[in-house]
Amino acid sequence: MKIIAIKKSVTAQKILDSAEALFAESGYDGVSLRHITRHAGVELALPNYYFGTKLELFKHVIERRSEILNEERMSALTRLENSASIDSIISAFTEPFLRRTISGDIGWQNYSRLVAQIANSARWSREIMSHEFDPVALEFVRRTKICFPSAKDQDVFWGFHFLLGAMTLTFAQTGRIDILSKELCKTTDLVGIYKRMVPFLSAGFSAICEA
Amino acid sequence: MKIIAIKKSVTAQKILDSAEALFAESGYDGVSLRHITRHAGVELALPNYYFGTKLELFKHVIERRSEILNEERMSALTRLENSASIDSIISAFTEPFLRRTISGDIGWQNYSRLVAQIANSARWSREIMSHEFDPVALEFVRRTKICFPSAKDQDVFWGFHFLLGAMTLTFAQTGRIDILSKELCKTTDLVGIYKRMVPFLSAGFSAICEA
DNA sequence: TATATATTTGAACAGTTGTTCAAATATATA
DNA sequence: TATATATTTGAACAACTGTTCAAATATATA
Fold first, then answer.
1. What is d(CA A115, CA A107) in angstroms, rounded to the nearest whole number?
2. Radius of gyration over alpha carbons of chain B, in Å?
3. Helix B106-119 / helix B153-172 crossing angle, nearest 10 deg
């Protein structure tokens, strides 16, 4: 009987890191197990040993950091006072991801690029996004409803949808806005983005959720 | 010498339609030429005859409708008066895509799902999105600057970035919000989304672009 | 009708894909 | 040290990949 402790195996972590980086760049089907193992410097058979199939490896890549992210988001949301403003609710939801990404940790940067792709993919969104991130999303919605007592539930959900779109494109780090703005705006300037994103989204929520 | 008139060949259009539908579902690498030709009911060698490589076929899929979309958006923007409100500018930019998608045309629905994925992909965004859509995007930015004379260029570009994120996630039609909201919100209800999206984004722009 | 051109067919090519497994090696336990 | 378990190795499998091409067929031109 084999007992695999993925979290403690440096080989397993090397595979996850390489898979994360390559999936973020080229997507699930754009990357082969040989790409991953070559990048990680390990044998081809090892992903199967630790994770089973390629699909299970993919899901492990997602779950490794979603657990951390969900905990941080949830605790930031529950730390809020009952009278919290929409600004602070949006900050609580978006800031944990942002802080991880701007820290310079290349793993988190790859992860956020990967999640952005998944969130906009018909194939993966329901299967992965819903499963991993909906509980925290519902807590965000619950807090926002308290903030706008007269808002209809639909309005709050659509507001969350717009927030999610703006946030995921930001974390996608595509570099398109750099080209469009002739390098006036930098995809990597997450602090500058954040300073504008929270007011932008707060005003948007107020516009559709206030009577 | 072979003279190929792609736009008039029903075979070429069948290939483009099938490629569009399958790429929208599974992405560039998730679809093989055999999937496409089987779906279209044509021989394997025909994509090469009409389009050359798989990559060139992919780009033809994108360009076929981006030409139409760009013309409609550009003419909607230039039809605006000089004193146009941010609401009307956002409408001019987003409405053409919306109208095509809600018309029930399955081809345009597939196309919008595909563009949403490309917009959030590091691999394709610069190569395809910038090339296809930046001229019209710059016209949007130019009109928005007139609307907010005291706004810094950076603020307008970032506003466009948030708009683009919200819009692409909407057109991605992932169905995630349906699950999250327990079917209270429907991804397919583009009219209901639009009614909220324009006010949401207008308020966002005002928040970061007004002094 | 005869000729030229456009299109379609069916097969083949070499390279890559995910997955499997017995054997070899390393590590921990007794 | 001896034994059991965990991990790594290297090769093999059949299926699938994008691309190519000569031959066959259809269509237009003269």
1. 12
2. 19
3. 130
Cβ atoms within 10 Å, residue A202: 22
Task: Note whether A139 and A201 are same-domain residues.
Answer: yes
Contacts of B168 in chain A (CB under 8 A): 120, 165, 169
Residue range(s) defining the domain that contains residue A40: 1-52
Residues B40 and B105 in one domain: no
Instruction: Verify that B69 and B42 share a domain, yes or no.
Output: no
CATH number (domain holding residue A137): 1.10.357.10
The model's pLDDT over A90-136, given as tens digits with 9 standing for 90+, comes to 999 999 999 998 888 999 999 999 999 999 999 999 889 999 999 99
Q: Output the distance from A37 CA to D1 C1' rounded to whole Å.
A: 37
What is the sign of the dihedral through the CA atoms of A157, A161, A162 and A166?
positive
Q: Which residues contact B109 (CB under 8 A, 6 or more apart)?
A: B101, B173
A166-184 tens-digit pLDDT: 999 999 999 999 999 999 9
Burial class (CB in 10 A: 0-12, 13-18, 19+), B111: buried
- Is residue B122 domain-resident? yes
Tens-place pLDDT, residues A14-24: 999 999 999 99
pLDDT > 60? residue A193: yes
Instruction: Estimate to the nearest angstrom the gap between the alpha carbon of A119 and the chain centroid.
Output: 8
Contact A188, A101 (CB under 8 A): no
pTM over 0.90: yes
Nearest nt (C1') from A3 Cα: D6
HSE of B180 in the Cβ direction (CA atoms, 13 Å)?
Answer: 32
Cβ neighbours of A203 (radius 10 Å): 21
Contact B157 A206 (CB under 8 A): no
